[in-house]
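Exercise 7. Given the encoded structure of a 518-residue chain, write a plausible sequence.
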C-alpha cells in the first residue's frame, strides 16, 4: 500500500493535500465559531444584562431612600416642599422598575422574584406612611414611627438580598466569561498544534513520496552528466517523476547520438581545415614566390626597353617609340601590381605581436606618406579629437588609413577633397570612420569593392590595381574586426571598420610611449 501511494501521480497528491487542509480548516473554523459564540454569550450576559441590572437595582434603592426621606420630612413639618424628594423618588422607582423588567427581571427569574419582593415591601411601607401623611391628620405616634421604621428596615433587607443575588449573578457571568475565554484559547492552541502537526506530516509525506524521488533523479542526472553519459537514468516515485526520468534518459540517448555525430563532423572538419590551411599556405607561398620571382624579369624588360629607346632613339620612328613606351608603361604597371600582390600576401604572415597603438599617430603617419598627393589635390584631412588607442600591428593599420585616405583623394569630385577621420565606442571595440565628399559608391557595389582586382572604373579614369580595399579588409579581419561601406551616407563615401580596444596593461604602455614621445 505504501509503495502504491508513493507511485501516485502528483495530481492525486495535490488533491489529498487540499482535502486534508480543507478538513483542518473547516474543523478550525467550527471550533473557533463555537468558542467565539460562547465568549460572546458570556460577555453579552455580563455587560448587557447583569451589569445594567445591578445599576438599576442601585437606582431603585436610591429612589426608595429618597421617598422615605421626603415622607419623614413631611410628617415632621407638614410642609409640602418636603414631599418633592418623595415624588421624584417615586418617578425614579417607576423608571428603574421598568428598566429592570426590560432587562429580564421576569417572574420566572431570580431577578424578577427579588424585584417583586422589593415592590411588595415598598408598597407595605408606603401604604402605612401615606396613611399618616393624610392632610389634617394627627401627628404620628411613637408606635407608628417605630412601625414605619420596621417596615422600611424590612424593605432594606429585601434590597440587600436583591443586591446579593445580582452580585452572585455577576460573579457567575464573570466565571462564564473566563471559562469561554479559556475555551477559546485552548481551541486556538489545539488548532495551531493540529495544523502544525498536519503540516509536519504532510511535509514528511511529500518529502518521502515526491521530493525524495525528485532529488534522487536530480542526483542521478548530475552523476550521469558529470561521469558517464552511457549510464542509464532511472527514477522512482510519482508517475510524473518516473515519466520525467524516462524523458531525461531519452534525452541522454539522443545526446549520445548527437555527440557521436558531432565528433564525426569535428574529425571531418579538422581534416578539411588542415587541408584548407595547407592549401592556403601553399597558395600564399606560391603568390609570394611568384610575385618575388617576377620582379627580376620585369626589371630586365623595363631596363632593356629603356636602353633600346635610348640607344636607338634616332633610328626609331614615332610609332616605334610609342610601342616602346607602351611596353615600359605595361612593365611598370605590372611591377606595381606585383608589389601590391606581395604586400597582400604578406598580411598576417609576418610581423610582431599585436600591441596597443595610438590611432592618432597612425593617421598622422598615413597623411605624412600622402603629403604630396594631398597637396596636389588641395585636400584637407580633419581628425577627430581623442582618437582611442587600439590593439594591432602599427604598419598594417597605417596601411589601412593610408589606403582609405588615398582612395578619398583619388576618387574626388570637382570640389577639393574634405576627408574626416573619427571613432566611436562599440562595446569592447572601436568603430572608426573615414568619410569624404567625393564621387561616392553605388550601394549595390558595397561588397564587390572589397574583392581583389575588382574595379568600378577604368584605368584611364582612375589608376590603380584593385587591391587596396581587399588589402584593407584582410588587415582589418586579421585584427579581429570588420570593414564595410556605410550605405546610409549619400553624400560622398564613408568607410567604417572596427578594431579591438587594448587591455589595461597595453593601454598603460601606449600612454607611456606617447608621453615619452612628447
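Solution.
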Amino acid at each position: 500500500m505504501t509503495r502504491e501511494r508513493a507511485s501516485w501521480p502528483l495530481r492525486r497528491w495535490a488533491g489529498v493535500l487540499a482535502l486534508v487542509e480543507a478538513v483542518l480548516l473547516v474543523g478550525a473554523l467550527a471550533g473557533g465559531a463555537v468558542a467565539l459564540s460562547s465568549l460572546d454569550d458570556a460577555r453579552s450576559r455580563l455587560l448587557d444584562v447583569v451589569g445594567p441590572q445591578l445599576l438599576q437595582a442601585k437606582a431603585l434603592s436610591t429612589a426608595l431612600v429618597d421617598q422615605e426621606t421626603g415622607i419623614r420630612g413631611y410628617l415632621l413639618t407638614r410642609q409640602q416642599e418636603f414631599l418633592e424628594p418623595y415624588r421624584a423618588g417615586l418617578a425614579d422607582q417607576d423608571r428603574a422598575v421598568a428598566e429592570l423588567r426590560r432587562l429580564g427581571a421576569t417572574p420566572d427569574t431570580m431577578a424578577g422574584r427579588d424585584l417583586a419582593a422589593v415592590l411588595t415591601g415598598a408598597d407595605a411601607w408606603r401604604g402605612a406612611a401615606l396613611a399618616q401623611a393624610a392632610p389634617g391628620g394627627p401627628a404620628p405616634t411613637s408606635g407608628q414611627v417605630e412601625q414605619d421604621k420596621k417596615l422600611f428596615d424590612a424593605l432594606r433587607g429585601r434590597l440587600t438580598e436583591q443586591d446579593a443575588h445580582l452580585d452572585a449573578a455577576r460573579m457567575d457571568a464573570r466565571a462564564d466569561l473566563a471559562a469561554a475565554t479559556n475555551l477559546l484559547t485552548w481551541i486556538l492552541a489545539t488548532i495551531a498544534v493540529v495544523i502544525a502537526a498536519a503540516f509536519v506530516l504532510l511535509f514528511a509525506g511529500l518529502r518521502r513520496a515526491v521530493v525524495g524521488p525528485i532529488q534522487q533523479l536530480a542526483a542521478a542526472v548530475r552523476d550521469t552528466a558529470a561521469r558517464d553519459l552511457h549510464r542509464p537514468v532511472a527514477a522512482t516515485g510519482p508517475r510524473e517523476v518516473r515519466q520525467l526520468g524516462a524523458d531525461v534518459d531519452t534525452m541522454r540517448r539522443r545526446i549520445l547520438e548527437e555527440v557521436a555525430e558531432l565528433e564525426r563532423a569535428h574529425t571531418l572538419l579538422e581534416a578539411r581545415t588542415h587541408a584548407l590551411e595547407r592549401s592556403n599556405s601553399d597558395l600564399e607561398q606560391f603568390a609570394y614566390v611568384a610575385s618575388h620571382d617576377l620582379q627580376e624579369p620585369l626589371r630586365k624588360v623595363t631596363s632593356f626597353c629603356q636602353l633600346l629607346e635610348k640607344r636607338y632613339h634616332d633610328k626609331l620612328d614615332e610609332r616605334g617609340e610609342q610601342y616602346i613606351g607602351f611596353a615600359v608603361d605595361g612593365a611598370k604597371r605590372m611591377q606595381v601590381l606585383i608589389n601590391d600582390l606581395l604586400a597582400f600576401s604578406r598580411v598576417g604572415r609576418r610581423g610582431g605581436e599585436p600591441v596597443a597603438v595610438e590611432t592618432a599617430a597612425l593617421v598622422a603617419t598615413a597623411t605624412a606618406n600622402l603629403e604630396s598627393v594631398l597637396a596636389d589635390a588641395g585636400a584637407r584631412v580633419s581628425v577627430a579629437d581623442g582618437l582611442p588607442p587600439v590593439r594591432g600591428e602599427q604598419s598594417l593599420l597605417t596601411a589601412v588609413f593610408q589606403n582609405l585616405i588615398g582612395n578619398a583623394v583619388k576618387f574626388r569630385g570637382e570640389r577639393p577633397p574634405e576627408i574626416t577621420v573619427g571613432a566611436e565606442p562599440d562595446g569592447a571595440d572601436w568603430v572608426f570612420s573615414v568619410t569624404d565628399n567625393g564621387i561616392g559608391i553605388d550601394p549595390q557595389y558595397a561588397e564587390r569593392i572589397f574583392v581583389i582586382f575588382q574595379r568600378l572604373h577604368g584605368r584611364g579614369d582612375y589608376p590603380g590595381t584593385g587591391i587596396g580595399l581587399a588589402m584593407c579588409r584582410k588587415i582589418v579581419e586579421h585584427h579581429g574586426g570588420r570593414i564595410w561601406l556605410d550605405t546610409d551616407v549619400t553624400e560622398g563615401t564613408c568607410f567604417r571598420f572596427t578594431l579591438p580596444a587594448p587591455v589595461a596593461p597595453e593601454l598603460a604602455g601606449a600612454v607611456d610611449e606617447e608621453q615619452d614621445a612628447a
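Remark. The first strand starts at residue 355 and ends at 358. Students should compare their own answers with the one above.
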